[in-house]
Amino acid sequence: MPRWKIWLMASRPRTLPAAVAPVLVGTALPATMGTFRVGVFIAALVGALFIQIGTNLSNDYSDARRGADTEDRLGPVRVTAGGLVPPKQVLQGVYVAFGLAVLCGVYLIVQSGWELLIIGVLSIAAGVLYTGGPKPYGYEGLGEVFVFLFFGIVAVAGSTFAQLEEFPSEAFLLAVPVGLLASAILVVNNVRDLDTDRRVGKRTSAVRLGRARTRAMFAVMVYGAFVTAPLAILSDPLELWLFLPWLALPLAAKLVRTVRNHADGPTLNGALAATGQLQLVFCVLLAAGILAS
């Protein structure tokens, strides 16, 4: 396999919509207020992508060290555990990805304020400590909570702040559905890996709750995104355009059925990719609804 394909696989492209989506929503709100800075938008988007890639590489490296990525796992091959890339090189990839994210962050701090330094530091720390450090929170069933916070609330509100240099309340309301769908991506991953995670002592939410309740949680998260999307109308008259994401409901319903009725690796790998695609479609529609309001 060509080297570039190995590194592309290591970056886990199926998860990257979780980085793009909140920046789109967080930037659309300031645009309706007459503020759109192209350079800031690009830096926020690229920085978010490299934080996601750095998190994925860190997860690949840390899970291999802890023995969590075994040969019988149902997901795609991990480059460290699979011997495709030496651990030292994967760790170097982590440093490069987060280093590029820091460069984007420096530009954003200069343009918009020191508050983004705190957001950047906490986001990178959350990425590393997901499966790294002495007590990784991903091994304690807290992964979805942190994804909701950092790929929902923090990412959307941070993207809005980068443009406006303030935190309007609407940004936090609009971040809720974004965070729910980002967390749903991780839920599919954990449902797929439930049996192997249990065997290696990785106590994800799926291991703690069991397959049936985790599938129910997935449905609540997906449909909850559609329910919460229009809530910003309550604090600001963004009109009925915030119901635009409901056009994606048929995709959501099909996805919920797939996760509820299947446990095999290939189907759930496809469902994981489809959840990322759903989040992107949903957030494009949400951003369009915000701009149209």
Strands, count: 0
Mean pLDDT: 90
- Helical element count? 12
- In angstroms, what separates the terminal alpha carbons? 48 Å
Given as residue ranges, the uncertain stretches (5+ residues, pLDDT < 50) are none
What is the CATH top level name?
Mainly Alpha
Task: Write a structural description.
- This protein is mainly α and 293 residues long.
- The chain has a single domain, classed as Farnesyl Diphosphate Synthase (Orthogonal Bundle).
- Helices cover 72% and strands 0% of the residues.
- It contains twelve helices and no strands.
- Helix 2 (17-32) runs parallel beside helix 6, helix 4 packs parallel to helix 6 (143-164) and helix 7 runs antiparallel to helix 12.
- The longest helix has 29 residues, at 38-66.
- The chain starts with a helix and ends with a helix.
- The mean pLDDT is 90.
Name the descriptors.
Farnesyl Diphosphate Synthase, 293 residues, mainly alpha
Structure, briefly:
By secondary structure, this protein is mainly alpha-helical. It is built from 12 helices and no strands.
Secondary structure: elements and pairs:
Layout: H1 3-11, H2 17-32, H3 38-66, H4 87-112, H5 115-129, H6 143-164, H7 169-192, H8 194-199, H9 205-209, H10 211-228, H11 249-261, H12 265-292
Helix pairs in contact: 2-3, 2-6, 2-7, 2-12, 3-4, 3-5, 3-6, 4-5, 4-6, 5-6, 6-7, 7-10, 7-12, 10-11, 11-12
